[in-house]
Amino acid sequence: MRMGDWYDRNAFWLLPSGAVIFILMLMIYPLGYTIYNSFTDWSLTHGDKVNFVGFRNYLDIFFRDDRFWGSVGRTIYFTGLAMVVEVILGVLIAVLFDAKDFSGKRVARSIMLMAMMATPVAVAMVWLLIFEPTAGVLNYLFKSSGLEALLGGKQLWITDSSSVIPSLVLIDIWEWTPLIALIVIAGLATLSREPYESAMVDGATPFQIFFRITLPMIAPTIGVAALLRLIDCLKTFDIIYVMTMGGPGYSSETLNIYTYQMSFQYFNFGYASALLVVFLCLVLGISLLVTYLRRGLEL
Question: So where are the chain's domains?
Answer without folding.
Answer: 53-298
